[in-house]
Structure formats: structure tokens, C-alpha cells
Amino acid sequence: MGDETRTEEEQAVEAPEQVDELAEATRQRDEYLDALQRSQAEFANYRKRVARDQASLVARAAERLVKELLPVLDDLERALEAANEHEEAKLEDGVRLVHRALADALAKEGLTEIEADGAFDPHVHEALLSQPADGADAGAVLQVLQKGYRLGDRVLRPARVIVAE
User: Fold this and answer.
1) Phi, psi dihedrals of residue 135, rounded to the nearest 5°
2) How far apart are CA 81 and CA 76, in angstroms?
3) CATH number, domain 1-109
4) How, if at all, do strands 141-146 and 159-164 pair?
5) 43-73 b/e with 16+ CB inside 10 Å = b?
6) Which fold has domain 112-165?
7) pTM for this structure?
């Protein structure tokens, strides 16, 4: 049956029901939109807070390292003063003191030297030259040209070496 055969009373009863359904759907839509907008704002605030916290953490880590290196700077200044006085023994002692202080400060941060004795390991060594060597096994490290270092488990700089052929 079409709308034409229904009475006006039947059509009048259906119209308020459709209006109520439309009003309910509009209300739900508005609630969902409001919830979505709140979630977006909360997430944006969370991202900003995490970025601030991360920047603060990096700044504190740098501050801690610089604080560890300040005594090394003081020792270097003392060594330079000794160099001005031409006291070679004091200068050498000063340089040794600075080297030890710097090595200790970096070791506290987790820096370790890569061992270069024994066989060549491409994960931690960089072969700059290979040369024949009497009495050495092929692939053995003959000489270290530049020390390599790890920070924790990560290789910061591979050891640069000469390898036996």
C-alpha cells in the first residue's frame, strides 16, 4: 500500500516516531563527536607531555656527563699551567692524570675498549690493511692503528687494524 491509501491519522502517528528516531540518532552522533574530540585533545596533550619529558631526560643525561667531565677540564688546565713552567715531569704526570680521569669518567658511562688481540672480527674491527706476516695465522690482527670502543652492547667505533694475510 502506498502513502495515498493510508489515512491521515496513520501518517500522523508515524511522523513523530521518525522524528524521535532522528533526534536520537542526532544526539548519539553529537555524543560520539564530543568523545572523539576529547580523545584527540587528550592524545595531543599526551604527545606534548612525552616530548617534554624526553627533552628533560636528554638534558639531565647531558648535564650528568658534563658534570663528570668538569674535573678532566680542571686537570687539563693544570697540565697547561705546568707546560708554561716547562716542568716536563709535571707535564707528563698531568697528562697521565687527565687521561686516567677521562677514561674513568667514560667507563662510568659504560664505555669499554674493543679487544683487538687474536682473530679479526668484522663486527668490531675494520681492516685497513692486510699484509703477510711470518708466524701469524691468516686473519689474525697484527697491529691496532686506532682503538675501537663499545658503549654497552653497541659498537661506537670499530677498532682499525692491520690483518695478517
Assistant:
1) 80, 5
2) 9
3) 3.90.20
4) antiparallel
5) eeeeeeeeeeeeeeeeeeeeeeeeebeeebe
6) Nucleotide Exchange Factor Grpe; Chain A, domain 2 (2.30.22)
7) 0.57
Q: How distant is the alpha carbon of residue 81 from its chain centre? A: 38
What is the rounded distance in angstroms from the CA atom of residue 88 to the CA atom of residue 154? Answer: 39
Under 8 Å between Cβ of 159 and 114: yes
Task: Residue 120: name the closest of 106, 108, 137 by CA.
Answer: 137
% residues pLDDT > 90 (the chain): 33
The 3-state DSSP class for residue 111 equals strand
Cell numbers found for residue 2:
502506498
Helix (H), strand (E) at residue 154: strand 154-157
Please, which residues have CB within 8 angstroms of residue 66's CB and are 6 or more apart in sequence?
A: none
- Percent of the chain beyond pLDDT 70? 88
pLDDT of residue 25: 94
